């Protein structure tokens, strides 16, 4: 598929049915049933403070009440019955690229649809916020119709091919979600993360301190390894700037490899510092495999 080319139009309702039959069913038993524990753990409300009993967890001791009463007291919690999840999806022009199975924007859309189906089928709520040209928002709700609403939002805010565009502002999108959340939530940030981490790392860290945040990076093989095709004119989809490269020149290929490596290390450092897990999805792959491996890795870290 050529960069920026458009596949035959698939309506959101058709896409939702395709995801249900071809993707979500293959994830049954892996992401369903225990997905709360897998992703965000229980969301807890304080129910009461009572005296300590043998077997109570030390971390739940309420030291203020203990000091006032002179006897050990612990916080007793009740689990909230409903989880709220958010999708923060990049719709900048750089997402309009792909050389294999799909464009990056379509891979991001498919992931968003799968996440919305998983969450709503469990009886929980999900909302979506897009950032980039034509940003939009769908408030959190439940039900299959909400999964369709998420896909409709992404269809309306698909990245335009014309340039230039304003710079991608992931930090502003994360701050918007942070302001809306009152209880612990699950947040998926779906982007190619081509924007430098310096602009959004602090906001991500604050969000991840209170919520379970998962970074979903979508990429294309031609971005990770420069194709050896001789002379090539490249165009930045967000600034409109053009550059001619000899992709067969060893110096050019080495410089590109260094840039890709530096960008990857900077992203991983920022995510590690914020304690945010990274899920990598590539346009050359069926997304089910990476999702299953990600789930297995998370499950393996559970106590």
Name some characteristics of this structure.
single chain, 303 residues, 2 domains, two-stranded antiparallel ribbon, 41% helix, disordered N terminus, DUF58
What does it look like?
- By secondary structure, the chain is α/β, with parallel strands linked by helices.
- It folds into two domains: 12-39 and 81-301, von Willebrand factor, type A domain (Rossmann fold); 45-79, no CATH class.
- It is built from ten helices and ten strands.
- It has helices spanning 12-27, 35-39, 63-69, 104-121, 144-156, 170-180, 201-210, 221-224, 250-274, 288-301, and strands at 44-51, 73-79, 84-90, 125-131, 137-141, 186-191, 212-219, 231-235, 242-246, 277-282.
- The strands form three sheets. The chain has a six-stranded mixed β-sheet, sandwiched between helices. Strands 1-2 form a two-stranded antiparallel sheet. Strands 8-9 form a two-stranded antiparallel ribbon.
- Helix 1 (12-27) packs across helix 4, helix 4 packs antiparallel against helix 5 (144-156) and helix 7 packs parallel to helix 9.
- The chain is globular, with a radius of gyration of 22 Å.
- It starts with 11 loop residues before the first helix and ends with a helix.
- 34% of the residues are buried.
- Residues 1-6 have low confidence and may be disordered.
């Amino acid at each position: 598929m050529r960069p920026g080319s458009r596949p035959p139009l698939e309506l959101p309702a058709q896409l939702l049915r395709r995801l249900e039959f071809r993707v979500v069913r293959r994830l049954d038993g892996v992401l369903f049933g225990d997905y709360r524990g897998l992703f965000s753990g229980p969301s807890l409300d304080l129910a009461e403070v009572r005296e300590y009993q043998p077997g109570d967890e030390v971390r739940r001791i309420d030291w203020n009440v203990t000091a006032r009463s002179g006897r050990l007291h612990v916080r007793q919690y009740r689990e909230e019955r409903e989880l709220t999840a958010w999708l923060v999806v990049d719709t900048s022009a750089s997402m309009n690229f792909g050389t294999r199975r799909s464009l990056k924007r379509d891979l991001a859309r498919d992931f968003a649809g799968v996440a919305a189906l998983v969450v709503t089928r469990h009886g929980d709520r999900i909302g979506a916020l897009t950032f980039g040209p034509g940003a939009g928002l769908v408030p959190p709700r439940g039900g299959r119709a909400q999964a369709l609403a998420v896909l409709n939002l992404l269809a309306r805010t698909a990245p335009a091919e014309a340039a230039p565009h304003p710079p991608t502002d992931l930090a502003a999108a994360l701050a918007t979600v942070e302001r809306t959340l009152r209880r612990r939530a699950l947040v998926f940030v779906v982007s190619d993360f081509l924007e430098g981490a310096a602009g959004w790392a602090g906001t991500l860290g604050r969000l991840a301190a209170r919520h379970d945040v998962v970074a979903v990076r979508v990429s294309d093989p031609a971005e990770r390894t420069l194709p050896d095709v001789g002379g090539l004119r490249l165009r930045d989809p967000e600034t409109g700037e053009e550059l001619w490269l000899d992709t067969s020149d060893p110096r050019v290929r080495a410089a590109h490899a260094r840039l890709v490596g530096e960008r990857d290390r900077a992203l991983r450092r920022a995510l590690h510092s914020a304690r945010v897990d990274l899920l990598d999805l590539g346009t050359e792959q069926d997304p089910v495999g990476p999702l299953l491996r990600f789930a297995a890795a998370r499950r393996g870290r559970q106590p």
